[in-house]
């Protein structure tokens, strides 16, 4: 019985490590998109300390602290002067970018 419990514990620990690695990959991709890979790059317009950006057109994301859903909606639909990135970025890229901005703006 102890072996089964230990194996189950190892299995769940492996799943958790895989989830963390996957999230880290998303955050790395999100930061790359924010700083340079999205066209135009988000950093051109937005201030976000984690990205080292000081854009003067869009809101200061460190102050706004948008959640992931709000960022994803703004990226897909555009808002104000910000263009829509729907069709320019894949759903995977939009989700990675939204996750990165929400986490970085929250200071986590």
Task: Describe the 3D structure.
This protein is mainly alpha-helical. It is built from 4 helices and 2 strands. Strands 1-2 form a two-stranded antiparallel ribbon. Helix 1 crosses helix 4 (91-106) and helix 3 (68-77) packs across helix 4. The chain starts with a helix and ends with a helix.
The neighbouring-strand order within the major sheet is 1-2
Pattern of helices and strands? HEEHHH
Would you identify the regions where 5 or more consecutive residues have pLDDT less than 50? 12-17
- The secondary structure category is mainly alpha
CATH topology-level fold name: Cytochrome Bc1 Complex, Chain D, domain 2
- Overall spatial form: globular
Separation, N- and C-terminal Cα atoms:
40 Å
Named CATH architecture? Orthogonal Bundle
Please identify the top-level CATH class.
Mainly Alpha
Helix content: 55-70%
Multimeric state? single chain
The domain tally reads 1
Note the main sheet.
2 strands, antiparallel
């Amino acid at each position: 019985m102890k072996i089964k419990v230990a194996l189950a514990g190892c299995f769940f620990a492996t799943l958790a490590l895989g989830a963390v690695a996957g999230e880290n990959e998303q955050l790395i991709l999100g930061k790359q998109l924010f700083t340079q890979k999205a066209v135009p790059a988000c950093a051109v317009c937005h201030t976000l300390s984690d990205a080292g950006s000081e854009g003067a057109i869009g809101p200061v994301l460190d102050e706004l602290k948008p959640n992931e859903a709000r960022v994803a909606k703004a990226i897909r639909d555009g808002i104000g002067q910000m263009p829509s990135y729907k069709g320019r970025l894949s759903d995977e890229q939009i989700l990675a970018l939204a996750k990165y901005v929400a986490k970085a703006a929250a200071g986590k």
